[in-house]
Design brief:
Keywords: Membrane, Repeat, TPR repeat, Transmembrane, Transmembrane helix. Residues 228-256, 420-452 are annotated as: Disordered. Residues 240-251, 423-452 have a biased composition (Low complexity). The protein is of the alpha+beta class and 452 residues long. It contains 20 helices and seven strands. It has a seven-stranded antiparallel sheet. Strand 2 (376-384) and strand 3 form a beta hairpin. Helix 4 (52-63) runs antiparallel to helix 5 (71-85) and helix 12 (197-208) crosses helix 13 (217-232). The relative contact order is 0.08.
């Protein structure tokens, strides 16, 4: 491996010169050499350039370097590349293989990719299973999109009542990066399929209230049908279900019901739901929305009622905690996913970019010490780099809601530090601006990308 060319490739990657980075990552390798990091980042660069077939091959070469590891992330990226190139069968194989990597920290990404591919292949049932798994995965910080996709699967399967519950759950979990209007539109389509014209029109109106969101052709037809039903005061025709429900082929047949592990849909709550009054929507929603996040939310409500959280809040307790937020940020940089949920909302785009570029790819952060108050915390963080070795960081957190987000990061280099500051520039501790953030560390990594 040519270390000089590899460092130049990393610098080009961080600077957004993906064409140059792809060439240099390839040139840094000796003939026949296995170099997982170089091929991984070359694949990411090619994805950014829209060269999806080449990206899939690059990820395949990275997978051949067994010492590099990260097979789950590499296979998920390869699945995305194959899907973008139109090879859905190869994409399904890659996503399925990614889910076999028990060390993969974010399997929900492979589940979402698999669900999208299966939908394109016309298999709504298995797609729904994948989206459900992504939604209840405890590593998924934003399950709303997966829940909405699950709702779309239920509509295709002729199960509009279940679709309503899925879209409602998506709205409950909607975050700043989610389009709540799309969830309302999906809810409107589900209500229309149930024959509930008034509820459908209300949901569609919420989706289009700002004049920006545009309904799909199917949703527009559903809206027009609901309006016609209201105008004529006649019942809407409901969406016919399939001749055989693929999730309950023998109907209400007791022992002949398929095993929950075979269906995949709402296996955590199916028995409870069968015992509930179908008309009690509030209870049904609570029962359906199980999973770790719901459990934590209910525990939090109980603690608030008892006054325990008020005390913990003043002592710096938060959901997510400082360690959880920091780990999610490092994972997002490594995976090339959205980092905004973990950064303070008041930061400029430049400041966010500096913080992200300061985080090394593939590194693992552990908070060693913390000076915390109710609204601010400063943590000393020990970071284990992907190529071995450690680096010390100082990370600033601020309270945002009940949890913590990151406001700045400082890398310790002995006599001077590089700081990712709110101004959007990197500064050393003497105040002099520096043009590199993170490149001074031998991280063996290169910032973030859309791919993992």
């Amino acid at each position: 491996m040519n270390a000089d060319i590899l460092n130049q490739a990393r610098a080009a990657y961080r600077a957004g010169d993906f064409a140059g980075a792809a060439q240099m990552f390839s040139a840094a390798k000796e003939p026949g050499e296995q170099a997982g990091e170089a091929d991984h980042l070359r694949g990411n660069s090619l994805m950014r350039l829209g060269r999806f077939d080449e990206a899939a091959r690059a990820y395949g070469e990275a997978l051949s370097d067994t010492a590099y590891g990260k097979s789950g992330a590499l296979l998920t990226n390869q699945g995305k590349a194959y899907a973008a190139a139109g090879d859905l069968e190869a994409a399904r194989t890659s996503f399925t293989r990614a889910l076999r990597d028990t060390s993969y920290p974010t399997p929900y990404k492979a589940q979402i990719g698999l669900g999208e591919v299966l939908l394109q292949m016309g298999d709504a049932t298995e797609a729904g299973v994948a989206f459900r798994q992504a939604a209840i995965d405890s590593s998924n910080p934003a399950p709303a999109a997966a829940l909405a996709s699950l709702g779309s699967c239920f509509i295709l399967l002729g199960r509009p009542a279940d679709a309503v519950e899925s879209f409602r759950a998506a709205s409950d979990f909607a975050g700043p990066v989610d389009d709540a209007r799309a969830f309302s539109a999906g809810l409107g389509q589900a209500y229309a399929a149930m024959g509930k014209a008034s509820e459908a029109v209300d949901a569609f109106n919420r989706a289009t209230a700002d004049g920006i969101y545009r309904l799909t052709p199917e949703q527009q037809r559903a809206l027009e049908g609901a309006k016609e039903a209201l105008a004529s005061r006649r019942p809407m025709s409901t969406q016919p279900g399939p001749g055989v429900d693929p999730l309950d082929p023998l109907g209400q047949s007791g022992a002949f019901m398929p095993d929950p592990s075979d269906t995949g849909f709402f296996t955590l709550t199916e028995s409870e739901m069968l015992q509930q009054d179908r008309q009690d929507q509030k209870v049904r929603r609570r029962r359906r929305h199980t999973g770790l996040k719901i459990f934590l939310a209910l525990i939090l409500i109980l603690l608030l009622a008892a006054g325990g959280v008020a005390f913990a809040f003043t002592r710096g307790f938060g959901i997510p905690s400082q360690q959880e937020t920091l780990t999610h940020l490092f994972n997002a940089v490594t995976d090339g996913t959205d980092t905004d949920p973990y950064l303070a909302t008041g930061l400029t785009e430049d400041a966010r970019g500096v913080i992200v570029s300061t985080v090394p790819v593939g590194a693992t952060p552990v908070i060693e010490g913390m000076d915390q108050s109710m609204t601010q915390s400063t943590a000393t963080v020990n970071v284990t780099l992907s190529k071995g070795g450690t680096q010390t960081y100082e990370v600033g957190f601020v309270r945002q809601g009940l949890g913590w987000v990151i406001s700045n990061i400082t890398i310790h280099f002995g006599s001077s530090d590089v700081v990712a500051s709110p101004s959007g520039t990197a500064k050393d501790t003497t105040g002099a601006a520096t043009g590199t953030t993170g490149s001074a560390t031998d991280t063996g990594s290169a910032g973030s990308s859309d791919a993992e």
